[in-house]
Every structure is written in structure tokens, then in C-alpha cells.
């Protein structure tokens, strides 16, 4: 099964200057819970946004069209979506962005995990258009706002109909 996992603001912004536009520890926690032990697929730019290289306890697959692009062990590089089949097993493949990568998988994604942040941020990358009429909302939960999680946000999960 292929899933998308991302967070977006009121205007569908997901990134700014190569990083996330916000700090939201509870979303990071959900990200970890939903990806540990699974395979994550990301674009080269998203990979470069990680300060410490590949994320631990997950198979990190990085996409770049440059076959000479160096990823740190134990991450693996693929240059085309067709190479993903080598890494497919029974576990969930979680596509974590950015927008170019979401676009590549949008017709075959089965599940969407989205965090909707009720705030407007400066941004230079937006989430792609998704046809939600093809998906059913199966879970919705408001997040806790506190001194470390300053903006209202909702976690939603959709399954392809
Ligand atoms: N809010 C969120 O949930 C979230 C999630 C992810 C990322 N982000 C943010 O979004 C920004 C990065 O996103 P982005 O859209 O600019 O970049 P990206 O999708 O992470 O990476 C784009 C790169 O991926 C490679 N690529 C794309 N399609 C490919 C394909 N079909 N086959 C092989 N390689 C392919 C290319 O690398 P080469 O140029 O090397 O060929 C391309 O330049 C950052 O600001 C990041 O923090 C936010």
C-alpha cells in the first residue's frame, strides 16, 4: 500500500526555503509513529532538509534524476519510480514529499495522512491538487494546542474509495 504523509497550512503551503515553515512537535510525533518500521520515499530536496541524514529505523528511499547523487548509508537512491518495485514488500510505503514526489505518485496513492494547520505561513512550495472525491475520510482528530504547539491543527486520514 502506498500512502502520502504531509502537513499543510490554510493555503496548502508545505515548504519554505528548503525547510518546513513551522515548528509543530506533535506533528513530528505523528510523523514518527506513522513511519517507524516502514519504507519512506522522498525527493532529493526533502532529503536535504534533514539535518542528520537518513531518518533512523525506516528504509529511506531518495529520488533524484541524477544517478551520481550521493545519499548517506543506509539510505538508497532511485532515479525512476519503476525502481521502487525492488523495495516493495507487505509493509506500507509512505511517500513523504515534497510536491514533485507527491505528483509522481498521485494516481496510485491508496491512503492520505494529512495534518491541516489552521494558520497562514510564508511558503515557496505547495501541496499538489488532490481529488478528494476519490477518497473517503476515515479518521479526523483535533490536535492539542499548547506552549510548544502554537497553531490549531487537525489530523485527517483518507482511504481511496
Ligand atoms: N509539510 C510537509 O509535510 C512537507 C513534506 C515534504 C517536504 N516539505 C518541504 O517541501 C520542500 C521540498 O519539496 P520540493 O517539492 O521542492 O522537492 P522534493 O519533491 O523533495 O524534491 C524534488 C527533487 O526530487 C527529484 N525528483 C522529482 N521527481 C522525480 C522523479 N519522477 N524521478 C526521479 N527523481 C525525481 C529531483 O531531484 P534532482 O533535482 O536531484 O534530479 C527533484 O529536484 C522543502 O521545503 C521541504 O521542507 C514539506
TrEMBL record:
One Pfam family of this protein, by short name?
DHFR_1
Pathway field of the UniProt record reads: Cofactor biosynthesis; tetrahydrofolate biosynthesis; 5,6,7,8-tetrahydrofolate from 7,8-dihydrofolate: step 1/1
The organism's place on the tree of life at top rank: Bacteria
Keywords of the record: NADP, One-carbon metabolism, Oxidoreductase
Q: Which PROSITE patterns match?
A: DHFR_1, DHFR_2
- Function recorded in the entry: Key enzyme in folate metabolism. Catalyzes an essential reaction for de novo glycine and purine synthesis, and for DNA precursor synthesis.
Q: What protein does this entry describe?
A: Dihydrofolate reductase
Tell me what organism the protein belongs to: Companilactobacillus keshanensis
What high-level taxonomic lineage is stated for the organism?
Bacteria, Bacillati, Bacillota, Bacilli, Lactobacillales
Amino acid at each position: 500500500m502506498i500512502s502520502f504523509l504531509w502537513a499543510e497550512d490554510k493555503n496548502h503551503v508545505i515548504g519554505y526555503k528548503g525547510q518546513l515553515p513551522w515548528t509543530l512537535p506533535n506533528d513530528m510525533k505523528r510523523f514518527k509513529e506513522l513511519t517507524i518500521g516502514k519504507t519512506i520515499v522522498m525527493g532529493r530536496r526533502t532529503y536535504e532538509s534533514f539535518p542528520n541524514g537518513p531518518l533512523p529505523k525506516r528504509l529511506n528511499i531518495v529520488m533524484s534524476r541524477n544517478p551520481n547523487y550521493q545519499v548517506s548509508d543506509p539510505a538508497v537512491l532511485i532515479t525512476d519510480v519503476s525502481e521502487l518495485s525492488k523495495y516493495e514488500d507487505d509493509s506500507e510505503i509512505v511517500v513523504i514529499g515534497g510536491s514533485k514526489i507527491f505528483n509522481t505518485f498521485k494516481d496510485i496513492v491508496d491512503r492520505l495522512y494529512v495534518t491541516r494547520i489552521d494558520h497562514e505561513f510564508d511558503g515557496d512550495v505547495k501541496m499538489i491538487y488532490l481529488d478528494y472525491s476519490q477518497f473517503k475520510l476515515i479518521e479526523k482528530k483535533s490536535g492539542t494546542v499548547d506552549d510548544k504547539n502554537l497553531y490549531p491543527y487537525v489530523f485527517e486520514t483518507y482511504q481511496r474509495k
